[in-house]
Amino acid sequence: MLDPWTRYCWVDSRTSLSLGYRQHTCNIEAVRSHAVHSVSYTLSRNETVVVEYIPDPTTDMFQIGRSTNSHIDFVVSEPEGPRNGRCRRKSRGSPSRTRPFMDTEDGVGPSTHIESAVSRFACRIHVKRDPPHTARIYAAGFDASNNIVLGELAVKWKSKGQMDGLTTNGIMILRADPERYIHPSCGTDGSVALPQWREVSICGAVYEMRDKRCVPTADNRVDEDNVLRDKTLIDLCGATLFWRSGSGLSETASVDDLRAMIDGLNLARFQCPIMYRTLRLSPVLKTTDFTKRSPVDPPRLDVRPLIVVDTDSPPVSPNDSKSEPYVYLNCGHVHGWHTWLAECDNSTMGRTCPLCLQLSSFVPLRMGIESAFYIDRALPTHCFNPCGHMASEATVRYWCSVPLPNTHNFELHARCPFCLTSINPEPVKLHFSGDTDLDTLFQLFTGALAASSSPSRSGSNSIPIPGFDDRLVSAE
């Protein structure tokens, strides 16, 4: 039992995940100083354990959270409130673990401000300055007073002389290796062995994802580390981050590649098999101009629950663009806008594909242009159902298999990374109509890529050829 009025400081020597701490009594005035980084574990009204952290010259610390305080390096905010003014809150494992539920349908009422579930000081990431620049994630971040305070009701425990704890809303990680999802392996019982979401503690220990407020024990602690590797997903309870490494991004499509893919598809002059119009994808790539912000302000990630550059344009009316491609989601046939065999001229639901006569939804086909979400450099041949964002086959299959936490509880669902729409687990293979054969299409893509690629990527390998048929003509 601790002396009710005794303060303890454990100095972090940053030498090991579990052995890098040693108990140490210190001056209470030093702990109260804003110049000292410390974590306070409140056990009761009269008992508090304080852990002091000392600077490490070999490590850089980056903090992520909702606060605009200068201590936060990357400010993360949740989506705006529902347009109809309605908001429902649902527990994420406990009454105090809440996150807003956003209605997706447009309403008639004014927008309503919703309290964000993302913590003001959500997490911190330590990156080694020396190669290979290992990055580790820890729950909670230091506030303006350089303190992390876990209140009396927070989940915390003492094990083997060391204090640790969890934040209220939790920091979850998922190492989403594409090979594990696109080509999952089966266990001894025939079940598919996929990575699981894990929760990270204040000290970086890794536990199974909790479904209620409970104290983690040795039974639910897993033998995993808190190292961030390429394609690790980080859930902040209201926002999900996608961690990419420089080496990982060098092997995936760049913005120049995506522009070349759009140009190549437009140069191929695919046609609507019904109206015989040439179809064109929009070449506009929207990006966020970070140069306009003040140099003293931290980068602000005003995004949907996944950190993305908002690239979606408003839906185009059929009367505004007759050349915009649409896709029947059940069969994958790509058309222009038409009203033939449609139950209603302006409806995109309950249609019948004129080529194969399948009942299907009819939605606009759009290019997913956030390059960080791609896992390869192949041509766009598939799209998500039902949003219609298209990407390479491996990219679409990957995101169709990765479970993302819901915006208001621990339920896991696959979502489109470009618009966060809940998607079906099976992607849609696209079937274009036209006379462009595979060799010609590949030459168009290669030429467009050479004309638009940056010098750093000009010597890279050309875009891989996907598994097309001999001709990209499905409207036989």
From TrEMBL:
Ranges of biased composition (kind: Low complexity): 451-467
Protein's UniProt keywords contain Phosphoprotein: yes
All residue ranges annotated as the Pellino FHA domain in the record: 27-259
InterPro entries noted in UniProt: Pellino_fam, Pellino_FHA, Pellino_RING
Superkingdom, taxonomy of origin: Eukaryota
GO MF entries: ubiquitin protein ligase activity
Keywords: Phosphoprotein
PANTHER family the UniProt entry points to: E3 UBIQUITIN-PROTEIN LIGASE PELLINO-RELATED, PROTEIN PELLINO
Family membership noted in the UniProt record: Belongs to the pellino family.
Protein known as: Pellino
